[in-house]
């Protein structure tokens, strides 16, 4: 549950225009600051917080920038 709260806060911070550069890229330092402020008290230590933060950030970055576009959905019979 704590993990999902952190993920939600990270996604909200990413969507915040103040946390984006002019080119549309994410300023991860600002996202980190927002998420830390909102969620660090839920974790036993900063180490635990940042392990979860980095795991979630990597997952989101991969969603936003897939390594390949080889996977395509095909519909049969059309």
CA-based shape: globular
* Low-confidence spans: none
SSE string: HHH
Number of domains: 1
Structural class: mainly alpha
Question: How many runs of DSSP E, i.e. beta strands?
Answer: 0
Average residue pLDDT: 88
Note the beta-strand portion.
Answer: under 5%
Q: Biggest β-sheet, characterized?
A: none
Intertermini distance = 42 Å
Helix content estimate = 55-70%
Rounded to the nearest angstrom, the radius of gyration is: 16 Å
Q: What is the number of helices? A: 3
Compile the SSE list and pairings.
Elements: H1 2-15, H2 28-39, H3 46-64
Helix pairs in contact: 1-2, 1-3
What key phrases describe this protein's structure?
78 residues, globular, mainly alpha, 3 helices
Written description of the protein model:
This protein is mainly alpha-helical and 78 residues long. The chain has one domain (2-60). The chain is 58% helix and 0% strand. The termini are far apart.
Concise summary:
The chain is mainly alpha-helical and 78 residues long.
């Amino acid at each position: 549950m704590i993990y999902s709260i952190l993920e939600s806060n990270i996604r909200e911070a990413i969507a915040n225009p103040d946390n984006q550069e002019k080119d549309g890229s994410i300023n991860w330092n600002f996202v980190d600051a927002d998420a830390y402020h909102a969620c660090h008290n839920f974790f036993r230590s900063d180490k635990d917080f940042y392990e979860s933060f980095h795991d979630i950030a990597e997952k989101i970055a991969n969603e936003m920038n897939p390594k390949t576009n080889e996977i395509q959905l095909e519909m049969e019979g059309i």
